[in-house]
Every structure is written in structure tokens, then in C-alpha cells.
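Entry 12.
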Amino acid sequence: MPDMIKNLIIIVLMMLFLPGCFSGLPKSECPLTPENRILLEKIDASLSRASAYLLSKQSSDGTWHSETYGMFRDGTTLTPYVMSALFFMPEKDGQPRKAYRKGVDYLLTLIGDDGNLKTELLFPVLTAASASRMVVLESKDEIHKQAQQAYLKIIRAWQLTESSGWTRDDPEYGGWGFSLHPPKKPADGQPEEHFSESNMVATIFAIAAMRSARIPLDDPVWGNALIFVRRCQNFSDDPALSDARFDDGGFYFIPEDALQNKAGIAGTDSFGRERFHSYGTMTADGLRALLQCGLPKDHPRVLAARKWLERHFSVSQNPGNFNSDREVLRNATYYYWVWSVAHAFDRAGIRQVEQQNETVFWAEKLAEELMRRQKDDGSWINSFTDAREDDPLVATPWAASALDICRRTIACAK
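Predicted 3D structure (C-alpha cells):
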């Protein structure tokens, strides 16, 4: 499959679910320094500009359409994504919430009388993951709950398990991929359907949707998902099978596929296995996935992923040891990186990191960097085009969400 198509699919699927994005204007639960009060005022102003930009781009039917890329102009692709940001925006005049409600009305039109989706989605897992949460954030009446269940059916049907022909020995088992239709394992000798292989991006968003829907942790979906998530971590539960040169606790995108792992091949370990470099976006996703699948914060895998993120945290780039021929891909997902690491630190309760004998208050540093990068019209744009973050309707919700998490962290707010 051409790299361009893969990259387009990946960025769409990465951007469709923004769990817990904006919190409004939280009340502080700790003493604030004068410097932090000034910083919070600047953040509020920045978020208000971002809100105004996103509101200006909504169509009359409640949808959002890209002005940059044709594949994002269908309405379904961008709408749940932007809604996830607007619902939590500062409510000075009620406009963000009004825009969110128009988006919900649109998402409800995609459900048929039989309780199933009547529209074929271009990106089933991630659109369904986002929409399943959006339709019940404000109203949980029967209509909205039925719509949520319709979207969750997609998540259930797209997991690669025994019901679709996979076994626990398969590297794809337990995760989710980008398949356009319910995946089925091909017969021996038959080619696999495009996009069907499990990967960390589709998997974290499916996991987040199920967790948001309060699916009990004894449901098999969690144990099956954890099998796949563990396979994407450079970590061994058995010390006898560990190689310290590669087992650093970080994550990569997909097992057994050098092309799709953005940082590239790290080498061959002591047991003859091809290994991949850990990198920032996937390690932040991986830490969140481990926790959402029910592992405790003191589990060795969680601690290893946390240590990697703390050691490599950066506000200027997507961290990791990228091979020289992959360096151009490092910051193509910069805004996805800041969004994911902010969520990971927030979920893990990390307020500061230690780097080179220095205590770094990550939220303050990241907030300053994001505000520095914001455009005059309130948007954010990445100069790198590979992941389509040069589209402001892609980059802006990532950046604004990360900035709001910074705000809540600085204010010691829940």
C-alpha cells in the first residue's frame, strides 16, 4: 500500500477521539504563584481564540469540513473530533456548547430505525469510538443511549479475536485496525484485507471508547486488548527473555512491520528477533492503554513506560531514537504527541519529571511552547505535511486539548 494512503489513514484515525479534552475553567485546589496566575490568564485567552477559530469553521448542518484535504471533507470524519474539543471549551457566551449540540444532532442522523448505523464510515473504529462518547456527554436519554450502543457495536465487531478467526498466537490478536469492514482472518495463502492488521493507534481509541462507556473490567474485551498492547511494548515479563539493548519500556506502532513503525528498526536482539525503536507518540498511547486495560500504576510494565516518557519528555519534538532515514517523520505528528503525552501524564498523575538533575514542570513548559506556536487566528498548523497536521482543523484540536490539560495541571484542578 502506498505510504501516502497509510499516512492519511493513520492521521484520520489518530484524530477522531479526544477523551477528556477541555475542562472549562477549573477551580484551583492548590496555592498559585503570581507567575502561574498570569500564565493561566494567558492560557484562557489562548483557548478562547482556539474556540473562536473552530466555531468559525462549522457548517450550518453541524459538521466540519477540511479546506485543505479532500478526504476530510465528508463531514463525518472531522465532526466528532472537533466536537470533542468544543464540549470542554470555556463557556463565556454559550457558543461552544451550542456548536457541540448541532454536532450531536448530525451524529444521531447516522443511526437507522433498527438501531444500527445506516451510513458506511470511512474510518469505522475511530469515528465510532469518538461518536459513541460524544452522543452521551450531555444527554443520556434513551435516544442518545441507543445511538451510543450503535457506535459501540462497531468497536465490538472490529476487534481481532476468535470470533473473526484470529487466535492468541497471532500477532494481531486482541487489537483493532483500520479495516473498512468487519475484519475476518484470511484463509491460508490468501492475502489479508488492507488496513485490517491491529495497531496501537486504532487500539488506544477503541480502548478509550470502551472505558468511557464503563464496560466492566471483567469483560473479555480488556484481557484480549491487553494481549496486543503488551506485544507493542519493548519490555519482557521474563528476565530470561529480555535484552537490555532494546527493552527500554517504550512502545511502537505495530508488531512485525518495519515500514509502519515510524522510528524504524532498532536491530536484532540476542534471541534473533527483529526489534523496533520506541518513540514518544506510541509510548504515551501505550501507557494510557496499559492503565485503561486495568493494570495498576505500580505494575512493572506501567512503571517502565512511565520511566521512558519522563526520561524522554520534550516540548519541541516527538522524542525517540529515529533512524536517519525516518527523521523526517519525527515531528509530522508533533501535535498528536503533545496531546497524547499530556493525557498520559494526566492519567498517571505525573506533575513533574526529572531530567538531567533538573525538575521539569512539564505543564508549564508545554503551555508556553503551545502558546508560542499558536497562529493569530487562534489555530495551530504543523509545517510538516506527512501526517496532515498542516491542516488547521487537524492540528488545532490536538493543541488546544493539550493546552487545557496543562491548565488543569498548573491549577491543581480535577
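Annotation: The beta strands are 265-268, 274-276, 353-355, 358-360. Residues 34-56 form the longest helix (23 residues).
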